[in-house]
Write a structure and sequence with these properties.
With about 425 residues, this protein is an alpha/beta fold. The chain contains 12 helices and 21 strands.
């Protein structure tokens, strides 16, 4: 049995704890909050093999520049003097090449497919109950330009062996009649599935507590103890925790914590917004409204509307204009569905941890052989939670990882 401290109580941290407990290890989870809110609770809940193209792709910089000064656009950068962010943008620009996209497509696809299978294994295990459906995700578009782009991506998905269907306006209306006349068609990624994240997180946390995991909430990591190229302890404002292995699964705060160990793990927080509607909407299938970059999910007992990517620093400030942009998109793409003032007032936000190449950091560092980084999943954090936890456990058990970790190395931006 090994003693493991996990810093971070999001989906990657809790899934790591789950698989570590299954292998008989002792697990302590530290989080600077009370693990009741945040990105792992408010995301769209997609488990999405369809998301096989990394965020850092050709054209994203040009589109981002067009949008960056419009604070209601799907992609927004708040102008600010921030040297770390400037360096990250340069690394992102350098990574956004066709060759990098081709390099990472098989990696991301494999991670997503393995993680989806692990979600289904979790459901079959009956360890804890959670909502899971495999209805796919609709990429719904309203312009010929978007139709062409989505069809091109779908053709590549088919070549990658994914289950995809093309729907014209008539076919789309048959399976999801709540779409408005402005929607001209969709690509249906039948390979995708979805869950209700906040319910999953509560159920998993309860299982972990009942099976021996120790939680230390509202404790912020201040420093690490190091000896002979090993991390020996982590210090918070209240305690010092010693262990055999340490896992940094701290989302966009991983960069700051890694810096305490003289490690460069560049991650920026990409803020997303979320609103829940607890009344009938008629929406029965998950959909991404392509032009608005808005995700819609019919969850366990409500409908979730989520979207936008905002780089404005690590904060959870709610910008009303961005909430309104999501609400406007919903009103445009659907018939007779409008998010009301109370629902908009209850909007929440969370920070997606985005790496410069849009690919997560998963693996050991060269500096410390008992430290594992599990962060930087961007918009695939929920989708990749189980496979990340499985890989972390394999590394601690000294087993060969179930996936090639070289492209995911935490040291790839070391210089």
């Amino acid at each position: 049995m090994k003693k493991v401290v996990i810093v971070g109580g999001g989906i990657s941290g809790l899934c790591s704890a789950y698989y570590l407990l299954k292998e008989g290890h002792s697990v302590t989870i530290i989080d600077k909050s009370d693990i009741a809110t945040g990105t792992s609770f408010i995301n769209a809940g997609y488990i999405c093999p369809s998301h096989f193209i990394p965020l850092a792709a050709p054209g994203i910089i040009t589109q981002g520049i067009k949008w960056m000064f419009n604070n209601s656009s799907p992609f927004y950068i708040k102008p600010r003097l921030d040297l770390d962010f400037f360096k990250w943008v340069l690394q992102f620009k350098k990574s956004a090449t066709k060759s990098n996209v081709e390099k990472y497509i098989p990696v991301i696809k494999e991670l997503n497919l393995k993680s989806q299978q692990l979600y289904e294994d979790l459901l079959a295990s009956l360890d804890f109950h959670f909502h899971y459906e495999k209805k796919g995700v609709l990429m719904a578009f309203s312009t010929p330009e978007s139709e062409e782009e989505e069809h091109n991506i779908a053709e590549r998905a088919i070549k990658e062996g994914l289950d995809v269907a093309f729907l014209d306006k008539i076919a789309l209306q048959k399976i999801q009649p709540v779409f408005s006349d402005s929607v001209i068609g969709a690509v249906h990624y039948k390979c995708d599935s979805h869950t209700t994240p906040n319910h999953f997180m509560v159920s998993l946390k309860t299982w972990l507590e009942n099976n021996g995991a120790t939680f230390h909430m509202n404790q912020e990591v201040k420093d690490f103890g190091v000896k002979n190229n090993k991390v020996v302890s982590v210090k918070t404002q209240k305690n010092i925790f010693e262990a055999d292995y340490f896992v940094l699964a701290s989302g966009c705060w991983t960069t700051k914590l890694a810096a305490l160990l003289n490690l460069k793990v560049p991650i920026q927080g990409g803020k997303g917004y979320s609103m829940d509607v607890h009344r009938p909407t008629g929406i029965t299938m998950p959909a991404i409204l392509v032009e608005a970059k808005t995700a819609i999910t019919p969850m366990d007992d409500f409908t979730r509307f989520a979207g936008t990517m905002e780089f404005s620093g690590n904060n959870t400030i709610i910008r009303k204009e961005r909430v309104e942009a999501i609400a406007k998109a919903v009103k445009t793409f659907y018939k007779d569905i409008e998010i009301n003032d109370e629902e908009k007032a209850n909007a929440t936000s969370g920070l997606r941890p985005v790496s410069p190449d849009g690919v997560p950091f998963i693996g050991k560092t060269s500096n410390y052989n008992n430290l594992i980084i599990a962060a930087g999943h961007a918009m695939m954090g929920w989708s990749l939670g189980p496979v990340t936890g499985k890989i972390v456990t394999e590394l601690i058990d000294d087993k060969n990882p179930s996936i090639n970790l070289n492209p995911l190395s935490p040291d790839r931006f070391k210089k």
